[in-house]
Amino acid sequence: MQDSKSTPSLFSTVPTAPPDAILGLNTQHRSDTFTKKVNLGVGAYRTAEGEPYVLPVVRRVEQALAKDPSTTHEYLPQDGLKHFCDLSAKLILGADSPAFTNDRTVTVQALSGTGALRVGFTFVARFLSEETAVYIPKPSWSNHKNVVVQSGLPPTKEYRYFDYGTGAVDLEGMIEDLRAAPAGSVVLLHGCAHNPTGADPTKDQWEHILQVVQEGKLVPFFDNAYQGFASGSLEEDAWSVRRFVKAGIDMLVGQSYAKNMGLYGERVGALTVISSEGGNGEAIRSQLKAIIRAMYSNPPKHGAMVAASILGDGDMFAEWEGELRKMADRIRDMREKLRAALIKNGTPGNWDHIVKQIGMFSFTGLTAAQVEFMKNKYHIYMTSNGRISMAGLTNYTVEYVADAMKDAVVSLKKGVLHNM
Ligand SMILES: Cc1ncc(COP(=O)(O)O)c(C=O)c1O
């Protein structure tokens, strides 16, 4: 028998993976012992005191479930809790959606928004083609490209999205790039609260994008990680998805309850496949179930039961809407306060974009060098593209952050936005 000590492990040459652009920041922040450190990296809501937040309505449902002797820990089917899926589809598409006629929608439970994308792109690779080109906005959430490739598709292509001059959507660039995409390509669209730029198309611009998608026979895949967080209204934030559904095209829709119900770690989400023609729902569902079976067998139950209880009860739903408005308002308040603090301390540049952008993030325009400077000198953490989570700011930290931004801008000059 060979001495195991003299045989190198088969795994000894496994290289270290590059740290995740966003989650790596949490690790760095956690191990930082500086008392005034600030984490503006990860997109998780924090209270005015900077603490994680469990929505009171979520807490009540959890307590009721814990006391209910009829709840069990039995497995869910591969496609998850049916009641939850039905209510999720209604939430994003609207109860009277034309997609609910003729068996045109199939909704399965997913491991939050990421899981919806992962199952959805695997479905695309298997049933459109492994060669399908996927276009994501430039810039986009840093995990999109990883999920697409891990799903068996070619590396993502990008379409122009953000105008660094105006701080708004670069509609002309976007249209030009989408026009050049081959028929059958998938276009990933952020349904609202674009991450990281906080710049969404106007309704007129969405009409334009829809027209190009239809003419080019592209397949939209909507990623909705922030329904209710952009405007504070669940309805308003679903407008883009519903408009595309009305056009009667084939499309996919991912949903997440991480941010809007604060169920981050419970991994609660849904994927809906919408067909332009009905009649093949059962086959589509069977294939989604087969993908899920081999990936993780079936989704977790607890979070889906919590979400379904709230979605299915009029009073609790109304309470949730109120909570969402409060969270969106606090984020908007922080935008105003950060801009005011930057004006007050005389930071060079125009900071109007901070209040114009919507959703959880502000794309500040700080360069990677300025971001690094703020981390090293002030222990303020944000992604290297200058994106900050507005929900990570509080009344106590906003001036400290504004002063650090001033120092970074004055010391290192020139931001990536042209007005800086
Ligand atoms: C644009 C976008 N899509 C998807 C997600 C996925 O989030 P989760 O998997 O936690 O629902 C996020 C989270 O930050 C996001 O910003």
Name the strands of the widest sheet in spatial order. Answer: 2-8-7-6-5-3-4
Radius of gyration: 22 Å
Distance between the termini: 69 Å
Low-pLDDT runs: none
String of helices and strands: HEHHEHEHEHEHEHEEHHHHEHEEH
Give the tally of structural domains: 2
Instruction: Estimate what percentage of residues fall within beta strands.
Output: 5-15%
| Computed structural class | alpha/beta
Return the CATH topology of the largest domain: Aspartate Aminotransferase, domain 2
- Could you say which small molecules are bound to this protein? pyridoxal-5'-phosphate
Please describe what this structure looks like:
- By secondary structure, the protein is an alpha/beta fold.
- The chain has 2 domains: 20-53 and 327-412, Aspartate Aminotransferase, domain 1; 82-312, 3-Layer(aba) Sandwich (Aspartate Aminotransferase, domain 2), CATH 3.40.640.
- The chain has helices spanning 23-31, 56-67, 82-93, 112-127, 144-150, 171-179, 203-215, 239-246, 281-295, 302-311, 314-344, 352-356, 368-378, 398-412; strands spanning 38-39, 105-110, 134-138, 157-160, 186-190, 219-224, 251-256, 269-274, 361-363, 380-381, 387-389.
- The strands form 3 sheets. Strands 2-8-7-6-5-3-4 form a 7-stranded mixed sheet, sandwiched between helices. The protein has a two-stranded parallel ribbon with strand order 1-10. The chain has a two-stranded antiparallel ribbon with strand order 9-11.
- The relative contact order is 0.16.
- The site of pyridoxal-5'-phosphate has 13 residues, from helix 4.
